[in-house]
Amino acid sequence: MSETQRDPGTNDEKDQQLAQHRIDATGELTTSTGTRVDDTDNSLSAGGRGPTLMEDFHFREKMTHFDHERIPERVVHARGAGAYGYFQVYESLSRYTRAHFLNDPSLRTPVFVRFSTVAGSRGSADTVRDVRGFATKFYTREGNYDLVGNNIPVFFIQDGIKFPDFVHSVKPEPHNEIPQAQSAHDTLWDFVQLQPETMHMMMWVMSDRALPRSYRMMQGFGVHTFRFVNADGEGTFVKFHWKPRLGTHSLVWDETQKIGGKDPDYNRRDLWDAIERGQYPEWELGVQIVPESDEHRFDFDLLDPTKVIPEEEVPVTPIGKMVLNRNPDNFFAETEQIAFHTANVVPGIDFTNDPLLQARNFSYLDTQLIRLGGPNFQQLPVNRPVAEVQDNQRDGYGQHYVHRGQTSYFKNSLAGGCPYLADADRAYQHYQERVDGAKIRHRSESFQDHYTQATLFYNSLAPWEQEHLAAAFQFELGKVGHHHVREGVVEHLNQVDHDLAVKVATGIGVRSPEQVTTNHGRSSPALSQAAGFPETVYSRQVAVLVADGVHAADVTSLRSALAERGALTDVLGPRDGSVRADDGSSFEVDRAMSTVASVLYDAVVVPGGADNAAKLSADGLALNFVAEAFKHNKPIAAMNDGVDVLEKAPLPGLQMAKPGNDVQVDQGVITHRGPNGEALHQTFIEALARHRVWEREVATVPA
Q: Where does the record put the 3'-histidyl-3-tyrosine (His-Tyr) cross-link (predicted)?
C-alpha cells in the first residue's frame, strides 16, 4: 500500500493528524487572529474609572470564547437548585428609585431564585468549599429584573477581562481533569499568588462562609455597587444584601466531606424538603445607600468589586422580604433553563462603571446564546416576563411565538406605526453622567489596595472562625505540589496578618515570613457569623437514637416540645420498621441508623429506658453517632438511662447528671435523670437555637 493509500484510521496516522492541532504554551500572547497582546489584565476603558469600551476586541474575543467553551452545562454555577416565591417591599422607595416593584408595598412581585455552587460540574456534591450563587429573577410589571449575586459580598478579580483566567485556574486542571469541584490544587493557588487582588475574596472562601449549612441559612449579596435612579433622574449608589430569617450558619469542614458521601444532594434536598413541608424560606432584602456626593469619601473605591462597605460606616436598611413557597415542576425546564443576566434591569435601577460588572453585562447574554441554543431563550416559560413583549425580533432557533402581520421593523406605516416608542416617563432611561478620558488599559490607582479589607475581615472573625480559616489555608495549600506557589501565598498572607501567615507556613512546611507586618487592628463585627443571628430552632433537624426498651414518654414529650417550635425530629433505630417501647407499645422508626449519620442533623438526643441504654451502649454505630456530634460542636442531650450511653461514648470527662440532680450542662452536653423532662427540653432548645456549641472549640484553640 502506498503512503497515499494508507488507512487514515490507523493509530500513527491519527497521531499525525492530532499533532497538527497541538499547540505548546510558548511565545508571546496573541489574539486568535495572531495579533500580539501586551495587556490582558485590564479592559480598555474611558479613563481609569470609566466604562469599558465596545471596541476592545481583545476583551470581547477572550470573553466570547470563554463563554462558549462548554455546552450545554453552565461553565460556572453548573450545579444548582431553585424555587419560586414572591418579593414584597415594606414601603415606597420613590425617594431613591422609580422601579415600580420597589414603590408599591401592596404588590407581591413573583420571583425565581437559583442557588448554586460555582466551580463544580452538575454532578458534583453540594457541600464542597466554594462560593455559592444567589441569583434572583423578579418578574416585574416593567420587565424582568435579575439580581445576580453570591453568598460572599466581594469577588476574586477587579476587571472582567480576568474572569476566564480565574475560572480556568479553579476548574479541573486541563491535562488530567482533576480535581472536581475543589480549589485545593496548584493552578488556582498559582493564580492567587500572582494576583494579590484575590486576597480579600480568598479570606472569605477559606472561612466558614464557603460551607453553608443550608441555602435557607445563607446570606446573599449583589457584590457590585449599583445605582438607584428616581423619577427626577437623580442617582444614588446602592449595595444589595439578602439576610436569611433563620440566621447565617455554616457546616464545619469535616462534616462537609462526610456529607458529600452520605448525601451529596444535602443542600438541594434541604431546600426542596423545607418548601414541601410548608416551612418556607425567607430573606430580608436590605440596601446600603450612598449619596453620589459621598462617592469618594471612603478609603477604597466604590467601583472596586473586591471591597465591602463596612456596615459601621453605612448601615444596611431593610426594604422588603422574599419568601420561597413553591418548588419547580421540572428541574430541566425551569432550574436548568432559567437564564440570568446582570443587564436585565428595569427603570430606576442602573449600573456603575465597575469593570467587572461591565464585563458581566456583556458575558451573560453571550453565554445564554450558546447554552440555550439561540436568541429566543427569553421565550422559555421560566424566563418569559409577565410584562408584554413587542420587540420586532423574528425567527431564530427556538422561536415560540407565532408573529402575525406584515412588518417587523421601526419605523413603519403599514401596521399603524406599531409597535411605537414608549413615553419617556415609562421607558428605561439610562442614568446620565459625564464620561471622558483617554482610551487606555490601566487599572485605577484607587483599586490598588489589596490587603486592608482582607485584614479587616480576619480581625472581625471570632477565634474559632479564625482557626477554621487558618486550617482551610493549610488544607488547601497542603494539596499544592509546587512549593514556590505555597510560599507566594504565604507572602500575601503576611500582608494580611503576620501571625496568620506564620501559622499557615508552619502547617504547610514552608519558611515563615521574616518581615513582621503591622495589623491595622480595625474590625467590622457584622462580617462574623458569630454576631447577631436570630436564635430559633425553626426547621432544625434533631436525631433521636432509640432501641428496644426505649422509654416512650421521653420520646413523645421531646418531639412535642420541638414540634411546637417548628423543629423536626427523626427517630433512628438499629433497623427500619419499629422498636418496642418499655411500656409494651411500638415506636415507628423514621430511618435506620446505618443509612444516615450525625453530620446530617443539627443535634442528637438519647432518651431513657434501661434496655434501650444497654443496647445503644453496645452499638458502635450509636456511640460513634454521639461522639461525632460532639466533635462537630452540636448540642447533645440525654434523659434518664440515656445518660449511660453518653458515659460509654468516647467523650472527654464531662459532668453528667446524677439521679435526683437538676439539669446538668457541660460544654453543650445536657443531661437529666428524673421524671420531669421539661427543664431539659428548654435548656436543649436554647442550645439548639445557638446552632453550635463553639465554647468546645474555643477551649481547644491554642493561646
A: 341-364
The answer to whether the annotation marks 108 as part of a ligand binding site is no
Is 364 annotated among the ligand-binding residues? yes
Domain ranges of the chain: 47-379, 541-698
- Residues 446 and 467: their CA atoms lie apart, in Å, by 32
145 is in an annotated binding site: no
CATH 2.40.180.10 is right for the domain spanning 47-379: yes
9 band by pLDDT with thresholds 50, 70 and 90: very low
* Rounded mean pLDDT, 369-383: 90
Q: Which of 375, 390, 347 is nearest to 141 (CA)?
A: 347
Q: Please state, as a whole number, how many other Cβ atoms lie within 10 Å of the Cβ of residue 409.
A: 9
More confident residue, 661 or 522: 522
What is the number of other CB atoms lying within 10 angstroms of the CB of residue 653?
A: 6
Note whether 640 and 554 are within 8 A (CB). yes
Residue type, 366: D
Q: How confident is the model at residue 429 (pLDDT cuts 50, 70, 90)?
A: confident
Whether residue 343 has pLDDT greater than 50: yes
- pLDDT, one tens digit per residue, over 536-579 is 999 999 999 999 999 999 999 999 999 999 999 999 999 999 99
Report d(CA 202, CA 502) in Å as an integer: 17
pLDDT digit string (tens) for 507-518?
999 999 999 999
Backbone torsions φ then ψ of 25, nearest 5 degrees? -80, 70
Q: Count of residues for the chain?
A: 703
CATH number at 541-698: 3.40.50.880
Tens of pLDDT, residue by residue over 138-195, are 999 999 999 999 999 999 999 999 999 999 999 999 999 999 999 999 999 999 999 9
H or E, element range at 506: helix 498-508
E strands present in 39-180? 45-46, 80-89, 109-117, 132-140, 143-150
The answer to whether 558 and 569 are in contact (CB under 8 A) is yes
* pLDDT higher than 90, residue 659: no
Neighbouring-strand partners of residue 137: 112, 146
User: Residue by residue, what is the 3-state secondary structure of 438-500?
Assistant: CEECCCCHHHCCCCHHHHHHHHHCCHHHHHHHHHHHHHHHHCCCCHHHHHHHHHHHHHHCHHH
pTM: 0.91
- Flag whether pLDDT at 27 surpasses 80: no
Tell me phi and psi for residue 548, to 5 degrees: -55, 135
Q: Which residues contact 564 (CB under 8 A, 6 or more apart)?
A: none
Residue with cell 441504654: 613
Residue numbers annotated as active site: 77, 150
Give the end-to-end CA distance of the chain in Å, rounded to a whole number: 79
CA 174 to chain CA centroid, nearest Å: 25
Cβ-proximal residues to 103 (8 Å cutoff; 6+ apart), any chain:
89, 92, 93, 94, 97
Same CATH topology for 47-379 and 541-698? no
pLDDT of 79 reads 96
Integer Cα distance of 501 and 506 in angstroms: 8
Q: How confident is the model at residue 19 (pLDDT cuts 50, 70, 90)?
A: low
Phi and psi at residue 529, to the nearest 5°? -75, -10
- Torsion on CA atoms 203, 208, 210, 211, rounded to nearest 10: 160
Q: Does 692 appear as a known binding residue?
A: no
